[in-house]
Write the structure tokens for this entry.
Amino acid sequence: MFASSCAVTFVVLSLPGIRAQGIDYAQFVNPFIGSEGGIPGYAYGGGDVFVGGAVPFGMVKLGIDTYEEPVNQSALNGGWTPQGKVTGISMLHESGTGGGAKYGYPAQMPLASLEGVNLLDNLTYWQTREGDDVASVGYFRTRLASGVSVELSATRHAGLHHYSFPSEEQHVLVDFSHYLPHPTRSWDSQFYAGGEIEIQANGSVYTGYTSIGGGWNIGAPVTVYVCGEFDASPESAKTFSGKNTFPVSRHFRTTDNLTTPEPTFQDSSARSGPMNNRVGAIFSWNSTDDIRSRVGVSFISVSKACAYKNEELTWDIDKTVQAARAEWNRDVFSKIRVDTSDSANRTRLALLYSSLYFTHLIPSERIGENPLWESEEPSWDDFYTMWDLFRNQVSLWHLIQPKYYESMIRSLIDMFKNEGYLPDGRSGNYNGLVQGGSNADNVLADAYVKGLRGAINWTEGYAAVKKDAEVIPFFDENPVDSQGSLKEGRSALDDWIPLGYVSADRNTRAVSKTVEYSLNDFAVSQIAAGEEPGDQNIYLRRSAGWQLSWDPEATSRNFSGFVMPRYANGTFHKTYNITNCGDCNWADESYEGTAFEYSFVIPHDVETVIQLMGGPQHFEERLDYVFQPNTSGVDLGVNGLGITSINNVANEPDFGTPYLYNYLNKQWKSVQRSRQLVNDFYFNTSNGIPGNSDAGALNCWLIWQMLGLYPIVTTPVYLLESPWFDDVNITVNHNSTLRIRAEGRDDGDGRQGYYVQGVTINGQNWNKNWFEHEDAGGIMTAGGEISFQLGAEQKVWETGDAPPSPGHIDLGSA
Ligand SMILES: *[C@@H]1O[C@H](CO)[C@@H](O)[C@H](O)[C@H]1NC(C)=O
Ligand SMILES: *[C@@H]1O[C@H](CO)[C@@H](O)[C@H](O)[C@H]1NC(C)=O
Ligand SMILES: *[C@@H]1O[C@H](CO)[C@@H](O)[C@H](O)[C@H]1NC(C)=O
Ligand SMILES: *[C@@H]1O[C@H](CO)[C@@H](O)[C@H](O)[C@H]1NC(C)=O
Ligand SMILES: *[C@@H]1O[C@H](CO)[C@@H](O)[C@H](O)[C@H]1NC(C)=O
Ligand SMILES: *[C@@H]1O[C@H](CO)[C@@H](O)[C@H](O)[C@H]1NC(C)=O
Ligand SMILES: *[C@@H]1O[C@H](CO)[C@@H](O)[C@H](O)[C@H]1NC(C)=O
Ligand SMILES: *[C@@H]1O[C@H](CO)[C@@H](O)[C@H](O)[C@H]1NC(C)=O
Ligand SMILES: *[C@@H]1O[C@H](CO)[C@@H](O)[C@H](O)[C@H]1NC(C)=O
Ligand SMILES: *[C@@H]1O[C@H](CO)[C@@H](O)[C@H](O)[C@H]1NC(C)=O
Ligand SMILES: *[C@@H]1O[C@H](CO)[C@@H](O)[C@H](O)[C@H]1NC(C)=O
Ligand SMILES: *[C@@H]1O[C@H](CO)[C@@H](O)[C@H](O)[C@H]1NC(C)=O
């Protein structure tokens, strides 16, 4: 049993039926990791994670929505907050995302009394919680101050609510106009665009739809069809409608809120109509029995939503939880098997299996649920975002989820075919936002170079990435960027193609876009190599564009040579602050990272970075420097709470930086740095990750760390680091086993017996600190064994070549 200071409990359910079929890894998962930030009791700066019932990549993620004050210390994105008042229980959620909240609909809310309640005024019925919330894989329980207990679980397209009321007075509000609000900002808040609700004959079934738009990517309204059912016929069931007084609704009608509206009740149906009214229903019972409700949702039709409800769910919450848990064990946790016996370190089990859990909540699988076009291809949503996922998460899915991953890639290519562009972010069936480059290019390239083929049409895959590289997207007029599209594609191709870099006067985020476009073009060249060989060199050359933005004279903290904002006329922004990117946001010269940081983020050509920084020794000194405490020149805010070094392990751009020592054949230093970062910032506690989990990107970084590997995305290379377990069996490529062993490991309780003394791969002595996907007879496809000899000596054990720089271009002589 695990309980934190802030009203949460993580339970170990005893489920003998599951244990009999194999190990119940789910017992080690702490679903609250990342649910709290640096300020105890508040979500701000935490992981923004979803806490509730879900299956792997499930379309439905059923959980409570809350409102926590003060709003500047909160974050409603995952629905759950440590102390927030419950405003509803809803079916669709993201996990780990920042920016304007998305989803939080359609909702129910159990009410123990209607006294003083205005169904259109959430302040009159919202509830604080009593005692500790309880969560485990596929299960959530809370107790409201009203005395109502709520238990939740979910299947792929449906959710089960189990309510226990304190007296025979029982009501459930169904609110089709509920969504997760954005209390501090309007431009990327969601808005209600109308709905319709109908109660069926015996009063226990309701159907209809709700449409909600906006949110982080300012998406078009999403229509969700709903089919809900209660297990007991209500005494009374009424629909209602009422004036829509939501403050934010640029595109749909709202009314002023000078008087609080009251609902108008109808017998069996209510629709929004031309005034865009809010609609819902209220069901009441007079009984001492528990009330259960099963709800299906669909983006296609009410009948599909009803079919999901009927086919996927019984009324039995224990069975639903067991089925969800069995699926997680079978399809996710058992893909990475470590010793779970009593002598195993429980903290490490929690970190590993919880991290696996958080890397499988989004994107959402929506096969058969694409309302936008007819296609034989699978459909996915909630890539939120590629900017986060491309760094190392897709490379893990490639290994352990080849089926799901192939399906995702096919869906991405289908989006390009039908909408014109791959997404960099996508949610609510709508592309956006693009933070820098077109990073789906990196995802496709990573899959391609590692040989993922299956039913993917790579002719079309190549056409998709080439479009990103060549065709500027139309301007979407997002209010935070007056210079280019944030919806999709690369808005700064108007600089990138003619100049070779993104200029700081004609475009926003010049530094980070230049760095990202460089890797994107390297990715395009990687796919071109197989699909359109004549194009390969064009994009390879373009991938050196970051060198054009390199100002050898730029100096900061005694180091010279940085990627800097450069103007279209060729001069550099000489007074640019290399250690401080200001707000580091959409309109700034660098996005969520300083020039100091981005100067290291060239994974395809580290060789040139080392040269430009003055050779290996200078490179190493600079690398050492960015990990020193109190060197950061920015307040990292939610993207790095508590971190004071220039290197910010809590945000994606710097994910690879601690591992760069491998390129100097000083792998022991990569091990030292990366271990230190985990020991300082990752814990099995509610505030146990240092920032937004970002769809699991931070959690995935931890998984690779624990496996002792790190992938170099867009290339088939994996760096060798230092595993946290003696023996790990990983199911790769559907049914092969990659075994990772560590001998001599002695790293608990502050001991440092984790430095590599030597490595063998499939029995061969391995003198390089890296290997490729198909090395040693197909280590990552056919499986095999990587064996580490560990010890306390900080040893330079690698005598072979340093990791490659396959995008190496010498612009001087080329
Ligand atoms: C939130 O605002 C309050 C004052 O309204 C202030 O005391 C507190 O420090 C702020 N919290 C954060 C995280 O900025
Ligand atoms: C209500 O009617 C539906 C079908 O019309 C039936 O499946 C369901 O069991 C009924 N519910 C109750 C509580 O009687
Ligand atoms: C409560 O309802 C109002 C509209 O009446 C809405 O603006 C607000 O966002 C809702 N609050 C929450 C936390 O859902
Ligand atoms: C009306 O909305 C404004 C802006 O969101 C808010 O400040 C005010 O408190 C609201 N008034 C009522 C009566 O809800
Ligand atoms: C609820 O049922 C009880 C027992 O049948 C009855 O005494 C009571 O009046 C009912 N209450 C309402 C509000 O109908
Ligand atoms: C890994 O697989 C090998 C071979 O089947 C087995 O002997 C070993 O016990 C397994 N280790 C773990 C931790 O599952
Ligand atoms: C792949 O897509 C291309 C372009 O749409 C098409 O011509 C080709 O037939 C497809 N290949 C397969 C195997 O379906
Ligand atoms: C830079 O170098 C000078 C001279 O060696 C030294 O005095 C100064 O402290 C250094 N500054 C930093 C930030 O390291
Ligand atoms: C180059 O452009 C920048 C930004 O517009 C301007 O400040 C600078 O004066 C220009 N320099 C030259 C030499 O034209
Ligand atoms: C850059 O910003 C940092 C942190 O705000 C500040 O301390 C430093 O003086 C600035 N440097 C320059 C050159 O403006
Ligand atoms: C392994 O999985 C692949 C892909 O699903 C399949 O083609 C192959 O037959 C499987 N091999 C075994 C031994 O199960
Ligand atoms: C268990 O692992 C944690 C996390 O790495 C570590 O802090 C702790 O010292 C380990 N415990 C033992 C007894 O080795």
